[in-house]
C-alpha cells in the first residue's frame, strides 16, 4: 500500500469579488482533484490549534500527524536544520527575511513594500547576508544564508517569546506598530539598512527596476526542534518533496528522506512536473509514503495574485496529482492519496488565517461515489466529517 499527501500551501481562500464571489479552488480547472473528492471521503480539518498562530510551520506539522501543542518549538529552528545548522540546546533561531522597506530615514516611518525583496535570487541574497554577517555578527550572533529571501540568525543563549511579526502579515502597511520591543533585535534590523541600501547588489537591482533587499526582518524565533520519528510513529518509510526550508526541516527532524527537485522554486514558476516525477520515483524505490508540498498558492495569496493562484492550483492538478495517480495505477499498487492545503491564505487579506480547511481522500480499493460535486471550500463544508484536532487526520488517512 502506498500513501501520498498532496499539500497545496495556502490553497484555500475566501470568495473573491473579481471571481463572482467564488474562490480560486471553485474557479480552477482541476479534474483529477475533483475526481478524488467525488469518489472518496471528504471533510474539514482544523490544522491550527486554538491560541497558536496560523503559520505554515504549525499547520504542516498538524498535516503530517504531529501535535503542534506538544512538539512545536518555533519556525526558524526547522529551517535552521534544513540548511545544515547544528543548533545547541541554548541556541535560539530566527527567520531572517531580506525585505524591501520604503525609504524614510526613521525605520518607524517605513512601509513593508515587499516581504521577499522581489523574490531575490539565492546567489544575490548570499552576498547580502554575508555582508550583514560580517558587520553584525558577534560571539553571540551568527547569520546563515538560505534560499531566496529566507535566511537564519542564530542567537547563542538568546531569548524567545519576543512576539515578533512575520513580514508577509504586514504587506503594504507601515511597520510602526510591528517593530520588535527587544532592543537587540530592533537594533539589528535598524542597522541592516546602512549595510544594505548602497550594496552593489542592490544598486544593480534598482537599475533593473527590481525591488532592493534594503533591510533584514527578524521573526519566528524558537529553540531546538523536538519532533518524533515518522516511521516509528506510523510504520511507514516516508519522503518529503518541497522547495521550502521549513518543510525540508520538518522532514529531516522526522527522519524522512528529503528529495531535492531541480527547478523547485516555491513559486508559480516551480517545477510542478518534476515534483510529480520525484514522488513516483520515491514510491518505486522503497518509500511507502510521500508528502508533496507546493508553496506556490500561498505565495500568490500573499501577493494578491488571483490568476496565478488559480494557475498554481491547475498545475498541481495536471502536473502532479494526475500523473502520480496514473503512475500508481500503472505500478499495480493499491494506494491512498489525500489532497489538502495547510491553511487558507485569502487573497483579500494577503496573509494566513486559522479557518478549517477541506481535505479529500481517495482509496484505490474503494472507489465510491459521494454527494460532493467538486473539491472546494463551500462544497466540502457540507460534509459531516470534521477533525477539530488536525494531527489526528493523518492516523485516519493511514487508517
Question: Care to describe what's here?
Answer:
- The chain has 399 residues and is of the alpha/beta class.
- The chain has 2 domains: 2-73 and 227-398, Alkaline Phosphatase, subunit A (3-Layer(aba) Sandwich), CATH 3.40.720.10; 91-222, no CATH class.
- It has helices spanning 24-27, 31-38, 56-63, 68-71, 75-82, 122-136, 183-196, 200-207, 230-234, 245-253, 272-284, 296-303, 306-331, 377-380, 392-398, and strands spanning 2-8, 41-45, 91-101, 112-114, 141-147, 150-156, 215-222, 238-241, 257-259, 289-294, 335-340, 357-363, 386-387.
- The strands form 2 sheets. An 8-stranded mixed β-sheet has the order 9-8-10-1-11-12-2-13, sandwiched between helices. Strands 3, 4, 5, 6 and 7 form a 5-stranded antiparallel β-sheet that branches.
- Helix 11 runs parallel beside helix 13 and helix 12 runs antiparallel to helix 13.
- The longest helix is centred in the C-terminal third of the chain and has 26 residues, at 306-331.
- The mean pLDDT is 96.
Amino acid at each position: 500500500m502506498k500513501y501520498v499527501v498532496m499539500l497545496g500551501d495556502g490553497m484555500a481562500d475566501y470568495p473573491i469579488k473579481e471571481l463572482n464571489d467564488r474562490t480560486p479552488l471553485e474557479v480552477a480547472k482541476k479534474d483529477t482533484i475533483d475526481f478524488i473528492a467525488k469518489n472518496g471521503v471528504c471533510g474539514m480539518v482544523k490544522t491550527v490549534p486554538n491560541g497558536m498562530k496560523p503559520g505554515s510551520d504549525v499547520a504542516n506539522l498538524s498535516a503530517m500527524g504531529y501535535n503542534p501543542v506538544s512538539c512545536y518549538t518555533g519556525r526558524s529552528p526547522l529551517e535552521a536544520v534544513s540548511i545544515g545548522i547544528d543548533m545547541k540546546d541554548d541556541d535560539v533561531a530566527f527567520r531572517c527575511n531580506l525585505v524591501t522597506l520604503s525609504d524614510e530615514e526613521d525605520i518607524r516611518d517605513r512601509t513593508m513594500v515587499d516581504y521577499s525583496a522581489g523574490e531575490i535570487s539565492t546567489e544575490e541574497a548570499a552576498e547580502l547576508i554575508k555582508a550583514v554577517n560580517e558587520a553584525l555578527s558577534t560571539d553571540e550572533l551568527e547569520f546563515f544564508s538560505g534560499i531566496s529571501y529566507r535566511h537564519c540568525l542564530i542567537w547563542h543563549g538568546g531569548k524567545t517569546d519576543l512576539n515578533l511579526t512575520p513580514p508577509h502579515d504586514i504587506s503594504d502597511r507601515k511597520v510602526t506598530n510591528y517593530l520588535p520591543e527587544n532592543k537587540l533585535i530592533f537594533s539589528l534590523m535598524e542597522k541592516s539598512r546602512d549595510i544594505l541600501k548602497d550594496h552593489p547588489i542592490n544598486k544593480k537591482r534598482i537599475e533593473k527596476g527590481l525591488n532592493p533587499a534594503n533591510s533584514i526582518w527578524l521573526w519566528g524565533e524558537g529553540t531546538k526542534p523536538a519532533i518524533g520519528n515518522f516511521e516509528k510513529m506510523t510504520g511507514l518509510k516516508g519522503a518529503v518533496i518541497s522547495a521550502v526550508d521549513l518543510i525540508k526541516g520538518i522532514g529531516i527532524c522526522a527522519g524522512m528522506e528529503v528529495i531535492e527537485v531541480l527547478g523547485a522554486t516555491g513559486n508559480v514558476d516551480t517545477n510542478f512536473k518534476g515534483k510529480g516525477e520525484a514522488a513516483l520515483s520515491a514510491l518505486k524505490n522503497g518509500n511507502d509514503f510521500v508528502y508533496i508540498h507546493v508553496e506556490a498558492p500561498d505565495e500568490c495569496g500573499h501577493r494578491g495574485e488571483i490568476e496565478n493562484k488559480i494557475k498554481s492550483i491547475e498545475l498541481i492538478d495536471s502536473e502532479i496529482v494526475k500523473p502520480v495517480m496514473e503512475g500508481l495505477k500503472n505500478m499495480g499498487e493499491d494506494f491512498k492519496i489525500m489532497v489538502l492545503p495547510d491553511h487558507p491564505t485569502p487573497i483579500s487579506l494577503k496573509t494566513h488565517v486559522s479557518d478549517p480547511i477541506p481535505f479529500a481522500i481517495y482509496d484505490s480499493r474503494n472507489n465510491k461515489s459521494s454527494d460532493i460535486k467538486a473539491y472546494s471550500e463551500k462544497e466540502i463544508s457540507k460534509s459531516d466529517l470534521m477533525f477539530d484536532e488536525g494531527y489526528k487526520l493523518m492516523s485516519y488517512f493511514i487508517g
